Each structure stands twice: as structure tokens, then as C-alpha cells.
Amino acid sequence: MYVSRQSKFVDVAVNAKSFDEFLVGIDLVKKVGRKDATLVADVKSTKAHLETARAELKSLKAQQEEATQAMASSKAAVESELTKSKGKLANVEEQIRQAMIRQAAEAEASNARRMASAGVDYSVLYRAVPPGTPHPGVVQVAYAKLGKPYVWGATGPNSFDCSGLTSYCYRLGAGMNIPRSSYDQAVCGPRVAVSELQPGDILGFHGWGHVGLYIGGGQFIQAPHTGDVVKITVLSTRGDYAGAVRP
What we know:
By secondary structure, the protein is α+β, with helices and mostly antiparallel strands. It is built from five helices and five strands, in the order αααααβββββ. It folds into two domains: 120 residues; 120 residues, endopeptidase domain like (from Nostoc punctiforme) (endopeptidase fold (from Nostoc punctiforme)), CATH 3.90.1720.10.
């Protein structure tokens, strides 16, 4: 291997056996020198291109990371606003539902007072047929769910809302698929007077915005509200009783 151009010249001069051989050697050294210079220039040019490409790649990577962070920030902001909007919508829907319940309860109470003053049992006024056979089996299912938490919209088996509990108990305890909502359950069977109540009858409260299952002895099982559990309640403690049905 030649270390330098000068060392190459010395090698040629020392090793040449004739002047012609010396001239040929010198010419070869020149050619090799030019080739080395070209190779070095090419290497430098390639290195410069690589460094430029590396710098551009680094810049593109930084831009991509910045764009990714911006997208993540925008996504978080949108999700936050969406969550707020859903919360507001749910609150408005709940207010509307409560207003409808109050309106229905007021109308129910007004009709009940008017009929009572006329000596009419309002709870059985509109039934087309007398109540059929009671369904005590649903009570046993309800007893087994005492202590389960109330969860709005839940239909069991580990959590319930009011109508979710009654529909679940009828499905398992009587083999009947009754309507899911409390308002639909209000018309899922003939009306039953208080004097006719039997275990398994569905009781309505607050304009049928809430329901429970009569278990006898003036008591019923209900899934009351958020934060509470399925439990037994004395019927006489409720001032918003709206009637009863027997599917």
C-alpha cells in the first residue's frame, strides 16, 4: 500500500531497473494519484449528500412529531368538548323526563281525587277484564336480588333499575316477557285495586315513572334510585302510589 505521493515516487526511483521503467512508473504514479483524488472527491461528495439527506430526514421527523403532538392535542380537545356536550344533553334529557313524570303524576293524582270524590275506584276504572291468576313466582326471584345495586338502564342479573327488575323477575319467575319501560308496564295487564293486590302484582308510583313488585303484607320490592339497592319497602310510606296491574 502507498502511504503518500512522495513515498510512491521514491519507491519508483529505487525499484526502477531502467530509465524507461522509471518513466513508466512515474506515469503510473500520476495516474494512481489522479484516480485517488477523484475517489476522494467522490467520497466527499457522497458524504455531503448523505449529511444533507440525514439533515432533511431529521427535519421531516421533527415535523412529523410536531404534527402528531398537534393531532393528539386536537383530539383531546375534541373529546373533552364531546364529553361536556354529552353531559349537557343527558342533563337536559333527564330534566325533560322528570318534567314528564311530574306532569303525569299530577294528572294521575287529579283524576284520582276527582274519581274518589265521586265514589269510584280509579285504579280499576279502565280495566276491560278482571285480573287473572297472580304470579307469586316472580316474588321469589325478586327476593334473590335483594341488595343488588341500582343502575339506570340495567336489567340484571347483578344490577337493576326499577322496570329492569320487574321485567327480569317476570321473565324468570313467570316465563313472561313484559314491556321494558315502567310506562308500558302500566298497561301490560288489567288494573288491580288495592283490596285485590296479590304477590307478584306490579305497583306504579309517581305517575308510573317508577315501579315495584308487591310481595304481600303491605310491602313491595323495588330498585329505588342511583346510590341505593334492591330492597323491601312498606307501601303505606309512599304518597305517590299510582295503581297496580297484573300481567
